[in-house]
Amino acid sequence: MKILYVITKSNWGGAQKYVYDLAVSFSGKGHDITVASGGRGELMERLTEANIKTISIPSMVRNLGLVREIKAFISIYKIIKEVKPEILHLNSAKASALGAFAGRLAGTKSIVFTIHGAPFREDRNIGIKLFYYLGTWATCLLVHKIITISKQDEHDICSMWFTKKKVTTVYPGIPYKEIPERITPRTRTTHIVTIAELHKNKGLLYGLSAISKLLGDYMNITYSIFGEGEDRQKIEQYIKMKRLEDIVTLHGHVSDAALRIHEYDIFLLPSIKEGLPYTLLEAGRAMLPVVTTTTGGIPEIIRHEQTGLLVQPKDDDHLKEELKKLIQDRNYAKKLGQNLHAHVVQQFSQSKMLVETAKVYGFI
Fold first, then answer.
1. Burial class of residue 159 in the structure, from the number of CB atoms within 10 Å of its CB (0-12 exposed, 13-18 middle, 19+ buried)
2. Lowest CB count within 10 Å: 5, 96, 103, 108, which one?
3. Would the CATH topology of 2-173+349-361 be identical to that of 190-347?
């Protein structure tokens, strides 16, 4: 079976990990896989190493532009006509909107659309939100099947007209083999970590504000952020303004960051908008206690005071208070990390994701 995956960006984020896992797994089962994406980032490099065919679409970038969109649409249409996939699996808003129209025009028999967090939930003005809502709805009408990665997304999409019968929720999953042993803290310093794209949606300025307030309460902490993105300069300026240079380290993009978080004490994700973040699953694999927000599908992973601690987005005061609880009570923090580990192993396994996706494809 020929499967063509299309995604807007080729960096290494949650949506890209999802595409990589599906592409490599279904290739291993004998299917003919091709992945098309904007640029030649880490996703494309990893796929090439795994002997997966890749196609770069230089005109497909995140920011909107009429000429770029026309060029990207033409490129996607040509790729579909050349590859002739039986299944066209679209990911991310722009690639999905262009790909759904191109797939229909090319006569593709099965078009699947995975929604990695509804774009109209982003923190934008009402006009932009309406534009994204209508664009998402139009995409949903064009495709044959829709995968949502959280019950929150399922609720949002099923509330649209003529979409409910197309929707299946399939939780992302990760492998849990060779789990590194938690490192026992050697000092009284608490090491807090975040893995996230440096983007407005991740709410990192609120996280940094909470860190600054913890220092005001004389908490002995460090804060490490792994990730790169368009907001780096803004974050650097904020760190300098708050005089956090000795406490906060921006590591940039590190490919194996998820395999290093067991060296830290607390995982912080202060997001404003999310789908269902892989990083929380990775924190659970490492048995890290988590402080995060109630946006998107996060509450489906983190149950307040059971598998982690939740606050409302943009609430740096409560972020500080919840972090402080874990800093002051390491036994409580350890219990939350163990509970989260048990929860993600049971509900968010990669094998389960692959089986349920195969059902959507019609393989089972």
1. exposed
2. 108
3. yes
Domain ranges within the chain, ordered by starting residue = 2-173+349-361, 190-347
Residue 30 CB-density burial (10 A; 0-12 exposed, 13-18 middle, 19+ buried): exposed
Q: What are the tokens at 162?
A: 């003529």
H/E segment holding residue 102? helix 93-106
**262 closest CA partner among 351, 175, 178:** 178
Classify the C-alpha dihedral 55-57-58-64 as positive or negative. negative
Which CATH number, 3.40.50.150, 1.25.10.10, 3.40.50.2000, 3.40.350.10, labels domain 2-173+349-361? 3.40.50.2000
Domain 190-347 has CATH 3.40.50.2000: yes
Mean pLDDT of successive 10-residue stretches along the chain, which has 364 residues: 96 95 97 96 96 94 79 97 98 95 98 93 88 96 98 96 97 84 72 96 97 94 96 98 97 92 95 95 96 96 98 98 96 96 95 97 94
Q: Which amino acid is at 299?
A: P
